[in-house]
Design a protein that fits this description.
This protein is of the alpha+beta class and 182 residues long. It has one domain. The chain has four helices and nine strands; from the N terminus they run βαββαβαβββββα. It has helices at residues 21-35, 54-57, 77-94, 159-181, and strands at residues 11-18, 38-41, 45-46, 62-68, 104-110, 114-119, 127-130, 133-142, 145-148. Strands 1, 2, 3, 4, 5, 6, 7, 8 and 9 form a nine-stranded antiparallel β-sheet that branches. β7 and β8 form a beta hairpin. α1 (21-35) crosses α3. The radius of gyration is 16 Å and the shape is globular. The protein starts with 10 loop residues before the first strand and ends with a helix. The mean pLDDT is 96.
């Protein structure tokens, strides 16, 4: 029988997309106030691999990936998804735009082996983790590189996303090592 043990803390990641730059900045600031300082932030990526969000968010969407400095227990992922959804609603109510959903926030986490996203949508490859939330292993790390699954969203397959996750993985390793020495 294997020994049961707690999971080591993971690196918080937030994917934000919108066509409104102030919405993205608001989302980053709001998350940082709750989840700790920004450790790493990507440049904005064009988010044009799908038209799924056009009806609620419009076109010309940009996505930013952010890693936060304060590691967390991955069991908290459902709560983080609920918070992110509440922040989306809060922003939409306080900042009217043309689109009914001006901001999308997708929390997840990174380990040395994988990148996991939280979602409210069930599919055959997603696991229920409680509170109405599912988890998807979106990318995995193998033989020195980030790899896709058949279900990986098209944007997460891009080299520039993998470069962000490679840098985030290195920073995560540094954080873990510094905590081990403390």
């Amino acid at each position: 029988m294997g020994a049961i043990r707690e999971h080591e803390p993971v690196l918080p990641i937030l994917a934000l997309f919108s066509r409104y730059e102030p919405a993205i900045e608001w989302g980053i600031a709001t998350a940082a106030s709750a989840w700790g300082e920004v450790l790493l932030r990507s440049e904005p990526f064009a988010f044009d691999d799908t038209e799924y969000y056009a009806g609620t968010m419009g076109t010309g969407l940009r996505k930013v990936l952010v890693a936060f400095e304060r590691l967390f227990d991955p069991a908290e992922l459902p709560e983080r998804k609920h918070r992110a959804n509440a922040w989306e609603s809060s922003y939409a109510e306080a900042h009217p735009h043309d689109a009914p959903r001006p901001l999308n926030l997708d929390p997840g986490y990174l380990t040395l082996a994988k990148f996991v996203l939280a979602t409210t949508k069930d599919r055959q490859h997603r696991l229920y983790i409680g509170q109405g939330i599912f988890a998807e292993c979106t990318l995995y790390y193998h033989r020195g590189a980030w790899r896709d699954w058949p279900w990986t969203y098209p944007d997460y397959r891009r080299d520039e996303y993998h470069a962000f996750f490679e840098e985030a993985r290195a920073k995560y390793r540094e954080l873990r090592n510094s905590q081990d020495r403390a």
